[in-house]
Amino acid sequence: MGNSKILVVDDERDIRIFVTTVVETLGFEAVAAKDGAEALVQAGLNLPALVILDVMMPKIDDGIQTYRRLRTDPKLSHIPVLILSAIAQKTFLHSIRILSSGKGPRLPEPEAYMEKPPDASELSRLITELLPSGS
To answer: Hey, what domains does the chain have and what are their CATH numbers?
Structure first.
């Protein structure tokens, strides 16, 4: 059966509700967090099967540092991450490259990226691709 929890991290309440609804419609259990610190606590407690992470919370640094912590924590680094953000994918990838320069191993790119506003069917498709049912 495996883990069916998905961690949804976004500082905007309406986006958290939207994403949580999509997650639950697919039959997964959603765990919500409103910022990076809360996200890391929830990830450690729940060891979710997937993290859906907003980058701008409320500063871009929070989302990127959260991403970096998820990727560098040995207990969490295997968890796939779907970035959901108002910033363009190339901007995010450029930011993580700058962040990784000179700081140990290079950060891997996220497993999936989706620009806001999220589309329910596209979000469902990405979640289903990242988490084959029954995983």
So the answer is: 5-130 (3.40.50.2300)
